[in-house]
Amino acid sequence: MRFPAEPFRIKVVEMLRRVTREEREQAIREAGLNIFAVPADTIYVDLLTDSGTAAMSDNQWAGIMLGDESYAGSRNFFHFQSVVREIFGYEHVIPTHQGRVAENLLFSTILKRGQVVPSNIHFDTTRANIEHQGAEAADLVIDEGLDPYALHSFKGNLDPAKLERLLTDRGAANVPLVMITVTNNSGGGQPVSMANVRAVRQVCERHGVPLFFDACRFAENCYFVQQRESGYANKSVTEIARELFSHGDGCTMSAKKDGLVNMGGFVALNNAEWTQQLTNLLILIEGFPTYGGLAGRDLEAVARGLREVLNEDYLAFRIGQVAQLGELLEHAGVPIVVPVGGHAVYIDARRFLEHVPQSQFPGQALVVALYREFGIRAVEVGSLMFGHKDAGGRDVFPQLDLVRLAIPRRVYTTEHMRFVADSVIQLHREREKLRGLRLTYEAPVLRHFTARLEEIGPAPAAVPDAGRPGHELRSRA
Ligand SMILES: Cc1ncc(COP(=O)(O)O)c(C=O)c1O
Fold first, then answer.
1. How far is the CA of 278 from the centre of ligand 1 (A)?
2. Which of 108, 350, 378, 436 has the maximum number of C-beta atoms within 10 A of its C-beta?
3. Ligand 1 lining (C-beta closer than 6 Å)
4. Cα separation, 193 vs 274, whole angstroms
């Protein structure tokens, strides 16, 4: 397949430092084989996350210079509010400095102990904010959404039958709202169809329960709807977004994704009573309602970013760039989750490193090798992140060991992506050389952030490069 070229040209560049394999070897050893502890300036292509890593446009930077830093009533807030109202259609707009604060405001206000919040799959911070209130976060994605190789155009869909059952069993009084995450990050960035949103809405209406969206990647989701769902090919992504949100009562958003900024977020909703309560808490923990933890200039950048993200040339390039990386890997026989989602490519590390048992962290072994050999930072989403011991002291592992290559927005060129593909393919050819890891330190919670590990057996030999210019970075000082 052919994919669109970059629909932008580059006006400002950030030079990357040349780093040898020896330097990286030392950095990763000092980091205890934990990629989170590696200095970012020793990395060539950083695919740790697509959150807060976007490149802003000249238009956004120009907006930054028009920041009105008045404590109250900044003009940038009114611009931000009008853009959010126009796209999302909700009356009340509450700025926050990032997505998890939006979640915290919402759930610490409306959620009671023992209640349950269903979603397709809750993102980690959403789940944590729900559980923090003594409530339950229920994941009700369709079965295909849990199968890495099931081919389905909308693997992020929330199963309406599962939702109906939950609402009947638990009672609507115990469900303050239903949430749909678009795209479904924890399920591989898979989109949700409009038909599914309508079906979920109907269930919600029957039970009198509000519907909210986690809108982090709404534009990417709506682009998939345009491309894949019948009846939407001739609608603009903006029209699709308006229709999508018209089926809901509100949303939370981390603007660090489809807001195309490095920091920012908001809650938008129609319920005036909830708004009053959220605003009171906002003043306590974030700031006055017209800035909510952000500078005026930041609000301006979000307002402009939200419009830019709906540019369809941008979206065709964005979704195409991620798909192209997936296609290059798939053609070379690298096992990846399919279809490729909107913001990342996920490698199936158990299939990639069949000789490394789950107890030896195949995903993390792959992450370490990608950095050490090629200067690429990916993240493990598997045994290291989710593994734990049960009450009897036995190891419990997740079903999948994945390595996520998350693509920052407008940051890397297609040639960077080819470099990543060549490197992963080269590592796949040499996979027998990779060995498992064991933990030398683990924290009681969220262990992946601070864990320290070591290789089982002697130090691995260098993997030959794939002959791409980027590989010079590893051999010449
Ligand atoms: C789907 C989803 N919801 C919420 C969040 C939390 O946003 P933030 O990191 O801005 O707090 C993220 C961040 O990655 C996300 O992907």
1. 19
2. 378
3. 51, 98-100, 123, 125-126, 181, 185, 214, 216, 254, 256, 265
4. 28
Nearest to 303, CA basis, from 43, 98, 59, 22: 59
Q: Across the 477 residues of the chain, what is the mean pLDDT of every consecutive 10-residue run?
A: 92 94 97 97 97 98 98 98 98 97 97 97 92 96 95 97 98 98 94 98 98 98 98 98 98 98 98 98 97 97 98 98 98 97 97 96 98 97 89 88 97 96 98 96 88 87 67 45
State how beta strands 379-381 and 402-406 pair: antiparallel
3-state helix, strand, coil in the chain (%, to 5): 45, 15, 40
The answer to whether the pTM exceeds 0.90 is: yes
Are residues 341 and 188 in contact, defined by beta-carbon separation less than 8 angstroms? yes
Write the DSSP assignment of 48-115 as a string of letters.
S-SSS-PPPPHHHHHHHTT----SSS-HHHHHHHHHHHHHH--SEEEEESSHHHHHHHHHHHH--TT-
Give me the phi and psi of 454, to 5 degrees please. -140, 160
Q: Measured between alpha carbons, how far is 24 from 17 in angstroms, rounded to an integer?
A: 12
Distance from residue 307's CA to the centre of ligand 1 (Å) = 20
H or E element in which residue 473 lies = helix 472-475
Which phi and psi angles does 360 have, rounded to 5°?
Answer: -110, 20
Q: Which of 51, 103, 124, 298 to mutate to test the pocket of ligand 1 (most atoms within 8 A of CB)?
A: 51
CA of 126 to the centre of ligand 1 (A): 8
Q: Where are the beta strands (DSSP E) in 390-431?
A: 395-396, 402-406
Residue 359 token pair: 């107890």
Q: Estimate the crossing angle of helix 99-110 against helix 124-131, to 10 degrees.
A: 30
